[in-house]
Amino acid sequence: LLRAVVLGPPGSGKGTVCERIARSFGLQHLSSGQFLRESLRDGGGDTGAAGRAASHLPATHRGPALPRRVPTGFPRTLGQAEALDKICELDLVINLNIPFETLKDRLSARWIHPASGRVYNMEFNPPHVHGIDDLTGEPLVQREDDRPEAVAARLRKYKDAAKPVIELYKSRGVLHSFSGTETNKIWPYVYALLSNKIPPVHSEEEN
């Protein structure tokens, strides 16, 4: 049993890292954005549904009776971290520490498919057809808070909210921070860390 989360500012590559973890270690990737989209769709805007979904956050490895999931983007605040404590105690917190300028460039080039949450980056992960989702053929949009004028304020807000969360997990000895500007260069270190805790089902090179 392994209870773990992946933290990082907007544009840090949390989703990419979690997808690779899921493939490499036989886990399921769930994001806080996915919880919110599902709660709005299924609960008609009932934010309590997102809260109830949080009860399924623990990440486990091939356990027969427990969900095999890698949560990303949660907890975002100290209050959420304290709420998570009531559900389970985390064994591992992976924190992605990416330079401000890198984040600003990534976010400004990011477009999404609203219905699914699929994310594209016009610089290193563009859609096959400009402005069109690869799977559905529907148009992509740029979120208001991904526009250049909003990015700086968004990153400052994250930093202020995340600092006490990071300090909390650091004080517990479960925090592992990885710094860099490229996910492909950070990934081998994340893979090595997890390989010491749970057996992989795919090699690092396959991801």
UniProtKB/TrEMBL annotation:
Endpoints of the signal sequence: none
Coiled coil, from the record: none
Regions that span the bilayer: none
Location of the Adenylate kinase active site lid domain: 110-145
Region (Disordered): 39-68
A GO molecular function held by the record: ATP binding
Short name of any one Pfam family annotated for the protein: ADK
Keywords, comma-separated and alphabetical: Kinase, Nucleotide-binding, Transferase
Domain of life (superkingdom): Eukaryota
Family: Belongs to the adenylate kinase family.
Protein name, UniProt field: KAD4 kinase
Organism: Chauna torquata (Southern screamer)
